[in-house]
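#lab-general

N.A. 3:47 PM
ok so I finally got the sequence cleaned up, no stray characters, all 631 residues accounted for. can someone with queue access submit it? mine expired

B.Y. 3:52 PM
send it over

N.A. 3:53 PM
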Amino acid sequence: MGNAPYRQIALLLSAWLLGWPAAGQCTEPSNAAADAVALGPCAVAIGNGGAALYIAEALAKRIDVLDTAANRIIASFGLSATPTGLAFSPNGARVYVTTFDSQGGVASFDTASGTTVAAVPAGHGACAPVASPSGAELFVCNRFDNDVSVFDLAIEKEVARIPVLREPVAAALTPDGARLFVANHLPAGRSDVARVAAAVSVIDVAARKVVATVDLPNGSGSVRGICCSPDGAHIYVTHLLAHFEMPTTQVDRGWMNTNALTVIDAREMKRVNTVLLDSVDRGAANPWGVACSADGRAIGVAHAGTREVSLIAALALLDKLAQMPEELHPTKAETDTGFYIAPVTQSLVPNDLSFLVGLRRRIGVKGVGPRAVAVSGSKFYAADYFSDSLSLVDASEAKPRAVELPLAAKPFMDEVRRGEMLFNDATTCFQQWQSCASCHPDARSDGLNWDLLNDGLGNPKNAKSMLLSHQTPPAMATGVRPDAETAVRLGMRLIQFSTRPETEAQALDAYLKSLKPVPSPRLVNGRLSPAAERGKALFFGEANCGACHPAPLYTDRELHDVGTGSFGDPGGAYDTPALVEVWRSAPYLHDGRCATIEEALTTGNPGDRHGRTSHLTPDQIADLAEFVDSL
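B.Y. 4:20 PM
back already:
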């Protein structure tokens, strides 16, 4: 299909879905409307043989279509829910859009006629659709159900759910369609142990089950992107690599957080190694989308926190990793001279800030918050979430540069959105190693314990969700800060190691105050299940949980000693956490010793210090946990 017929089809699509009166107006669609609302491009996908780029605008609840030859929007169509992901059928005849507000869904559109083919429900937090090479199946990550849906596209129906680990947010299918690699966003399990890390689940498509788990290095989390090389040999995964074992006395040279790309052998289903995307004295914070060029020679990574795109020479990277020795020992002569310098071995690669020197080009973009990445030929497109634009980088150029493609005449920016932008911006941090979102992805928790300067050293505590932080003072686990406003300003100085204007702190306050809880996946049609109703009676009755966790925020905002001191802090009182959206904030208690609410109610409740639960039956504990997880 040539560009001219495609434009005609796209205009028909736009007119049909939005009811625009004239096709001529659709060639320059809705710039005036775009000025009035934020767009929030969150996902991109290449269609029509590279002639079109589809863009999911999360905040505007619509899909825009970019003519990649003219670099302009030629069509748009609105959606009734927030789009979270895009995928094309192998023949390009259909585009699949995952959506999520209170419920997840998948809509499919015929790209030629503009008609809606089907709209079917999916799981909670539906995102990251992937179509099988045969076009027979569609896979969808259900982020908050912790599973993957399999849709039979012949009958437009979900036919299977495959459990994975925690918060699947991205997936990549091998070219033969045999294996689906699923990126789990956060670590699962408790956080008071030596090893805490996210992992990649490997699904055998034919068997419809997980057949392997590829562990990422210790401290890995905030996994955002995954892609497969064109030959199906390697999987590339973007994530953070946190040094949570260290006291947070500095950020220099990745002391707290580094930013990484993990290479997985797709056939062996094993990690090859993990390389750092940072430079020695400058972080490359918050890597997000990743894509591989069709010839397999270039890997493109969007750095949401530092406003950059990295282009990595894939073949040279793989060759260098293959040549890394497993272990080397100094010779006697070297030992005697005292000048022995240990070479980098395989185990040291994840700590080597210079590993990508000569293999990678860091390219600054004008847009803010580049996230999703799509590639057509040698051209990498990154969706700039906060500037409502695209960044285009051509890997074939001798000196690649980023070209900004605005999606609106002027990006919408109120105080709340400015605060969200700052929360995710690492350029405000010393040497750009991390943003606020590095430890609080989506303003929630990264599932790790951190030893912060706020309350002295030697007592690491689980990172808290920022939801309701301003509404439920005091702040920090020990209540060391009287309110969240104080914590925000000290966080800039003690965690970002920078001094920023008061106006930025005010914008961060506005953003954090605006956060709304995501409805629990345990709810049934928005209501408590029968088990949760029984648990509610126990919560406010004989278990007496409501004494310290009264509705509606489920906190009395007081400090209590509940007998769970540890990590050099054997006793003392801790702030009563709000239980709203607690289903999302595992692990539990201040030191993350409990992986589930059930554990917090049983093994994590010595002497009934936070609720009278020791006499409850297992069924009652299950009901009580069901209620708490439904909040």
